[in-house]
Amino acid sequence: MILNLKIFRYDPGKDEKPYYQNFEVDADPMDRLLDCLNKIRWEQDPSLSFRMSCGHGICGSDGMRVNGISALPCQKVVKDFKEGEEILIEPLAVFRVVKDLIVDMEPFFERYYSIRPYLITKSPPPEKERLQSVEERQKFEDATRCILCACCTASCPINQAKETANYIGPAALVRSYRYLFDSRDEGHDERLALLDHKDGVWGCKTRWWCTKVCPKQIPVTIEIAATRKSIYDITKKTK
C-alpha cells in the first residue's frame, strides 16, 4: 500500500523558513504512521527528525499533527487511510519548533510542575503504605492515564491565542485533578489556590478539543469542571 506523506521540515540552524517535503512509502496495511516515518528516516532521509520511544501509545513522546489534528502516529494504522492519499504531518501547534517534528516542551513541563504534581502530605507517614479503597481510587482513575503527550494543550484554542498564552493548559489541570481527588493527598486547598486564577482553571472556555484529541480518552473537560466546582464549594463555605 503506497502512502504519500507531506511532512513539515524546518531546521532553524540552516533554513530561512519552514517548508514541506513529500515522501512515498510502501507500507503494510497494519503498519502505523510511526512505522512509515521510521522507514523514511532509515531508507530515504536520515535527517528527518521526530521524537519516539515506546511506539505503543504509552510514552507520549511522538505527539504531532496528522492532517491538522493532534495525535500519536504510533496509534494511527495505515489501513485507516486511502492508498495514494496525501497525509499531512506537522509538529504540535503552540510550541517552538526545534527541528522538523520536534518541538520545545520546556514551557509545557514548567506549567505541569507549577501545580505540584505529587502527593502533598502533612501527617506523619504510617508504618506501611497509605491505604485507599477501590472506590476512592476510582474517583481519579481516568486522570492517571495521562501520558503528557501535550496533544490536548496543542489543540486548545485558548493556548493558541496570544492574549491567553499564559493559560496553564488542560494537561496540567488533568494532573492537578488526579491529586485533588486522591484521598491520600493533604494539600487540597493549597493546590486549588494554585489554580484559582484567570490563567489557571478559569482560563478554560470549555471548547472540548482537549477531550476530543486525547489519545487515552480522558474526559478532560469534565475533570476541569469538577475542579472548578471544588473551588466554588470552598468559596461558598467561607461566605
**Helical stretch tally:** 9
Broad CATH class of the largest domain:
Mainly Alpha
According to CATH, the homologous superfamily of the largest domain is Alpha-helical ferredoxin
Strand residue percentage: 5-15%
Separation of the first and last Cα atoms: 65 Å
Structural class: alpha+beta
Biggest β-sheet: strands ordered side by side in the sheet: 2-1-5-3-4
Describe the structure.
GO terms for molecular function: 2 iron, 2 sulfur cluster binding; 3 iron, 4 sulfur cluster binding; 4 iron, 4 sulfur cluster binding; electron transfer activity; metal ion binding; succinate dehydrogenase (quinone) activity. It comes from Candidatus Methanoperedens nitratireducens. Its cofactor is [2Fe-2S] cluster; [4Fe-4S] cluster; [3Fe-4S] cluster. Residues 136-167 form the 4Fe-4S ferredoxin-type domain. This protein is of the alpha+beta class. The chain has two domains: 2-103, Ubiquitin-like (UB roll) (Roll); 106-238, Fumarate Reductase Iron-sulfur Protein, Chain B, domain 2 (Orthogonal Bundle), CATH 1.10.1060. Helices cover 32% and strands 13% of the residues. The chain is built from nine helices and seven strands. The chain has helices at 33-43, 106-114, 134-138, 151-155, 157-160, 170-180, 188-195, 209-213, 220-238; strands at residues 2-9, 19-26, 64-66, 69-71, 86-90, 97-99, 102-103. The strands form two sheets. The protein has a five-stranded mixed β-sheet. Strands 6-7 form a two-stranded antiparallel sheet. α6 (170-180) packs across α9. It is elongated. The relative contact order is 0.13. The model has no long low-confidence stretch (mean pLDDT 94).
